[in-house]
Automatic annotation (TrEMBL):
Domain annotation NADPH-dependent FMN reductase-like: ranges: 6-127
Any Pfam family matching the protein: FMN_red
Naturally occurring in which organism (per UniProt): Microbacterium aurantiacum
Name of the protein described by the UniProt record: NAD(P)H-dependent oxidoreductase
Domain of life according to the entry: Bacteria
Residue intervals passing through the bilayer: none
Sections of the chain in a coiled coil: none
Length: 128
């Protein structure tokens, strides 16, 4: 099988993120021929349609990073029974400008962990 690169997005910007630790474990467990690389979101400003005609460089880099990988894994915490705002903000950048959605046709998987009883079931459901 040919080599492939999978990008991962961690939906937490916490310095002690357990979801980042989960992502690092996935990096280590990746099978031969598969490389996992992080697609960072922490420097993205708040999305606004005002940016659609002229995306800032950091957002263009984010979209290019998604374009360049064969698939994406979203590693998400659950905040208030949904996904964290920082992740939603990143996904909104990816979805625009209209007609240029970065996830269109992109194989994407979702995983997450929390200390809560239902883990990240609600957050993951919101991503599907
Ligand atoms: C604002 C906020 C809301 C949270 N809401 C939930 C929740 O709805 N369900 C849950 O299982 N954990 C919830 N948690 C706990 C998180 O699962 C826990 O903080 C986890 O460590 C976050 O992931 P991270 O360490 O990767 O940032 C919440 C935490 C915060 C800070």
């Amino acid at each position: 099988m040919s080599d492939r690169t999978i990008g991962y997005i961690v939906g937490s910007i916490s310095s002690t993120s357990i979801n980042r630790r989960l992502a690092k474990a996935l990096e280590r467990l990746a099978p031969a021929g598969t490389t996992l690389v992080e697609i960072p979101i922490k420097d993205l400003p708040f999305y606004s349609p005002d940016h659609d005609a002229d995306y800032p460089a950091v957002a263009t880099e984010f979209k290019n990073a998604i374009d360049e990988v064969d698939g994406v894994i979203i590693v998400t915490p659950e905040y208030s029974r949904s996904i964290p705002g920082v992740l939603k903000n990143a996904l909104d950048w990816a979805a625009r400008p209209w007609g240029q959605g970065s996830f269109d046709g992109k194989p994407t998987a979702v995983i997450g962990t929390s200390q809560g009883g239902i883990a990240t079931a609600a957050a993951q459901q919101h991503l599907t």
